[in-house]
Amino acid sequence: MRVRSGVRDAGQVGRQGGRQGRRQDDAIGGAGSSGVASGGAGDGEAGDGDAFRAGHSDASPAGDGAARRTDRTATPLTGPTSIGTGSLGAGGTGRFGAVRAGARARVAGATAIAAAVIGGLLGSTAPVHAAPADPAVGTPDLPGQSDGTGGTGRTVSAGQLPAVWPRPQSMRPGGASVALDGEATIAAAPDADPYALSALRDVLRDAGVRTVHEAAPGQTLPGEGPVFRVGGPDAETALRALRAPARGDLPSGGYRLAVGEVAGRDTVALDGVGPDGLFHAVQTLRQLVVERAKSDGKASSGKAGSDKADTGKELAAAVVRDWPGTPVRGTTEGFFGQPWTREQRLAQLDFMGRTKQNRYLYAPGDDPYRQFRWRDPYPAEQREDFRALAARARANHVTLGWAVSPGQAMCMSSEDDLKALRRKVDAMWALGVRAFQLQFQDVSYSEWHCDADADTFGSGPEAAAKAHAKVADALAAHLAERHPEAPPLSLLPTEYYQDGSTAYREALAAALSDRVEVAWTGVGVVPRTITGGELAEAREVFGHRMVTMDNYPVNDYAQDRIFLGPYTGREPAVAVGSSALLANAMAQPTASRIALFTAADYAWNPRGYRPGASWEAAVDDLSGGNAASRAALHALAGNDASSVLGTDESAYLKPLIEAFWKARADATDSDNRGDDERYTKAAARLRAAFHTMSGAPERLSPGLADEVRPWARQLARYGSAGERAVDMLVAQARGDGSAAWTAQRAVQDLLKKIKKSPVTVGKGVLGPFLDRAMTESDAWTGARSDRSETAPPPEQDARPTSLTVPFGRPRPLTAVTSLTEPSPSAAAVSVEAHVPGEGWRRLGGLSGTGWTQTEARGMKADSIRLAWKDGTTAPSVHSFTPWFADTPAAGLELAHDEIDADTGGTFSVDARIFSRRPADVEGKLTAKAPKGFTVRAPEHVTAPRGGTATARIHVTVPRDAKTGTYEIPVTYGDQKRTLTVRTYPPTTGPDLARGAEATSSGDETSEFPATAATDGDPKTRWSSPAQDDAWLQFTLPRPARLGRLTLSWQDAYAAAYTVRVSSDGVTWRTAATVRDGKGGRETLRMDAQDVRFVRIQGDKRATRFGYSLWSVEAYAVKGPDRPGPPPSRPSGPGGDRPGTPARPAKTGDMPGSGPSAHEAWPGGGR
Asked: Which stretches of the chain drop beneath a pLDDT of 50?
């Protein structure tokens, strides 16, 4: 074995230079991390908490765990310090029940000088890092898969149509596009919606049309340019001429639109159904405006002799027939915290109009005038706000709604209070509010506002339901009489999120008027999914039409998060079956639009909804088409996409991270050694993505940047740290210790800032990447945290002139690595080793760059130190690491120590070799094959400094191998490991247990019979009583030579059990024994002949419940019915003896051979 320098200029570098019980904590990463408080970011930055309100909590988030590392912050020495051998050792009410909370992140600062000893003092092996987990399986078409480099633009190729959002129910290419130049004519029906016409004029003006003529029906069309037929008979005639589908049974809000040519003139025809249809048509038309395509001498409309220019805008030739899938679609402002401002609400209404939403429910959690001060009128300024909101809502075809939540501040049996409620509603109507909701969430069933309520209604859930129904019915009757055009009143009951029938729900259903709708949030306050079946059950339980008020993307229960992922987990039947679908927005109105855009898309066309595509469109829409802004917003949203709904976090970044780690590993793999180009490219791609993150705060639009400043800054910190982490690892790979140390110090500084931030970004992705990068860097420098110790406090009565690390005994010293703060006076500090009998010998001086590696060339020393003269500046030391020559130069590990294999099959096992030297280590890998086996392994393997080389060992088992256990010794230098191979004959189908007669020692209930384990139905299961010795038995259809058994456990599995077999059901023998069952899908190998009866005998339960199996599968040995003679003696521990302990595995965990190769695992036995 040869140690090869892995550092550039080795030897010279040193010299050169609601109710909290209902809260869903998984939305924010775990219980107790429900919120954050404002706090300083340090280094002159504004505190990340400044943009949101603080609450309180007994726990605080840890900044995504990105910096859960030993703090090695440098500090100048202030007294004589020695690290001894002893220390080193030898070897309130929330929104719909979601309570507001916050927590101040508490950062424990510590300063230390770390000294790491490599090569024996601590004696642990180098860690092996697993690649990041595969993304969780979720809704197809997940967001974040683009590269995030820019916007999509609005230029389309000939014959193609631009994307329209919400996604239309039906849209196809038409005959010819229509150019938009200097003038156009609008020919509208007399009763055409004025707001739709105003929106149409805006579309034309924004497209460059300077003159818009108006023409009445039947009037000669003035001017030139395209004509826009809007509603009435003329539009119907034009639609037929343009081959648009018939109106048919379009529901209210539906529309038809066609672009083309009629009677020689460019024509656009629009017609709508109900009060909103034309407005929706114009919103679609706005998105059909594209940059005019180059015609190559042909007119863009396809007409000969056309003089249309090749520049400007045009309307894509489209024919659309579209309608809303949900009659009422919109947004709730229902969070607790600082309510939106008037300007923010007005902008939100404009956004809602563009995205075809038609209901805005005003329900801020901290508005007293709709809660405990519900009787009082709003102050004059707020009344003006409502009037402005109502006017803007009308212009955008949005119904302004208002929710009143009197709770227990109302005497429900009092006619005076009912009159006061009616007066308040009338006052809101006068301000422009047109829809109302009555809320009774989180009220007591036994406490009343007045004694009269207790006398009238009694106590308990039924009494509360009757009281709530009485108030709702009274208000609904008033609206029907006074304001008959008002939409139905909705009631948010106390039990708005529960599942199934309850006393409260039954009483409410019986007492509530049919004209009142009931609101719910799904099953749970913030449910991961809502199904059509759950909605149907809720509708049946309440006996009324249901309003789905979805608590996404609201974040008042998780103030460290912003939820920028798409709307997912809701079946189409939820939108179709709800009388209204309202999404509860975040405290950040602009940022909310990403999720609300996708929710609007879903509600409009639930069966055509594609979350990923909708999310990308939402990012485009919010970024305004600017490529730099879009890239920044894509990075922010992509790293803030996860939520209770389950969207994958950092989905666009994960493949880049995985590719980087794989390329890094492959560069040292025995089969891919030297593949540095792929590593360089993977590093460049990942670094570019991190660079986009680091610049995001400056590239976001101003309003959005203000809202999300804490998260954007945290994203930038992660991005900068990611860039420098990549630089660090790449520099180490090329042996440039100085550059790597410079980058590492930058990462360390950024990690401190990341820890201080109270917000969460890139949950589970960004932090772990930096953790792994720092761990791999530490392995390269030798300053591994698991080999480091903190220096004791310095003595206060003396001035320091040295830092000493004793070894406890003389040892051959290879090199010393010092990591210090850069300093121009570093050369005055000596690196010295103490040689017994000779004293201190100088090895070299520190480098001004802070990175110093000093060669010792085998010098026998019992301690090392950094020494400087009294009166000079003491160095700031991060780590001081000796490397020894009296320990193995490399470590050896096998990915698996034991393997099950089929006779005649082939499998492979990875050998991992890691360097224990401050350089690359070269050596010879050998694997000795048992008689008849073929074993192939690379002869020479080089382990990189601080890293792991992977060498694949290929093994072929002879066809005539006897069932038994064989050993393959594997050596690298003086390191030796043993690969144990248990061989079994290959198995084949069919499943002999399918449909087999089954019995048991006892069934938990009749719903879980023994036969459920063999019926082939994946939805049925057998469950036993809670007894350790319970068993399940089944009978094969005929005697068989049994080779494989696969058990699919429910959550109640066996920690220990045996498989017993019999030919007659009387005499039993053990085929396999399991002592470390893990549940899930477990496969056991065996070679048992003449088997007719199989019994799974429990020995020890893993849970407090009994045993429960979804299914049992049994497969026979392929080939002769009887095995060959057993080996004369076992080939290793276990051999072919009965009762060999088996270690079953989850399917797919292990390589193997033959039909069962994908299920093989160390263990089995017979």
From this structure: 5-47, 49-142, 144-153, 296-308, 785-798, 1123-1166
Q: Which of 622-625's residues contact partners 24+ apart within 8 Å by CB, and which partners?
A: 622/590, 622/593, 622/594, 622/597, 622/701, 622/704, 623/151, 623/701, 624/701, 625/151, 625/153, 625/154
Rounded Cα distance, 13 and 22, in Å: 60
Element (H, E) at 901: strand 898-902
Render pLDDT for 757-769 as a digit per residue (tens, 0 to 9).
Answer: 999 999 999 999 9
Nearest to 453 by CA among 441, 440, 466: 466
Domains within the chain, CATH numbers bracketed = 170-322 (3.30.379.10), 329-638 (3.20.20.80), 800-882 (2.60.120.260), 890-982 (2.60.40.10), 987-1159 (2.60.120.260)
Q: Are 393 and 432 in contact (CB under 8 A)?
A: yes
Give the phi and the psi of residue 165 in degrees, each rounded to 5: -130, 135
Three-class secondary structure of residue 821 per DSSP? coil
User: Which secondary-structure segment (H or E) carries 452?
Assistant: helix 451-457
Tokens representing residue 188 in the block: 């509208």
CA dihedral for 111, 112, 113, 119, sign (positive or negative)? negative
Residue 1083, classed as helix, strand or coil, is strand
Question: Would you say 1142 and 1074 are in contact if contact means Cβ atoms under 8 Å apart?
Answer: yes
Question: Cα(675)–Cα(655) distance, rounded to whole angstroms?
Answer: 19
Which spans in 164-269 are helix H?
194-206, 232-241
For the packed helices 737-756 and 766-781, what is the interaxial angle rounded to 10 degrees?
Answer: 140
Angle at Cα 317 formed by Cα 315 and Cα 322, nearest 5°?
A: 95
890-913 confidence digits (pLDDT tens): 999 999 999 999 999 999 999 999
% helix, strand, coil for the chain, step of 5:
25, 25, 45
E strand intervals along 1063-1162: 1069-1074, 1081-1101, 1108-1117, 1141-1142, 1145-1146
Averaged pLDDT of the chain: 84
Nearest alpha carbon to residue 635 among 765, 453, 495, 788: 765
Q: What is the C-alpha to C-alpha distance for residues 772 and 66, in angstroms, rounded to an integer?
A: 10
E-only strand ranges, 34-78: none
The CA distance from 860 to 843, in Å, is: 13
928-939 burial string, b = 16+ CB within 10 Å, else e? eebeebebebbe
| Helix 654-666 and helix 676-694, axial crossing angle in degrees, nearest 10 | 150
Spatial distance between the Cα atoms of 1157 and 1161, rounded to a whole number of angstroms = 9
Active site residues: 442
Tokens standing for residue 313: 């805008």
Question: How far is Cα 554 from Cα 583, in angstroms, rounded to an integer?
Answer: 8
Contact in structure between 943 and 840 (CB atoms under 8 Å):
no
Q: How far apart are CA 576 and CA 400, in angstroms?
A: 22
Is 954 in contact with 926 (CB distance < 8 Å)? no
- Report pLDDT for 16: 36
Distance CA 575, CA 571 (A): 8
What pLDDT does 48 receive?
53
Region of residue 293 (left: phi > 0; alpha: psi -120 to 50; beta: else): beta
CA–CA distance, 985 with 1126 (Å, rounded to integer):
12
d(CA 239, CA 268): 8
Sorted by sequence, the CB contacts under 8 Å of residue 254 that are 6+ apart come out as 272, 273, 274, 277, 280, 321, 322, 323, 324
Q: What is the model's pLDDT at position 568?
A: 97
The answer to whether 640 and 761 are in contact (CB under 8 A) is yes
Q: Which helix (H) or strand (E) holds 687?
A: helix 676-694
Bridge-based pairing state of the strands 313-315 and 178-180: antiparallel
What span, in angstroms and rounded, lies between the C-alpha atoms of 524 and 856?
66
Reported pTM: 0.80
Residues making up the chain, counted from first to last: 1166
Beta strand 359-362 with 329-333 is parallel
What tokens were used for 197?
């016409």
Between CA 945 and CA 853 the distance in angstroms is 13
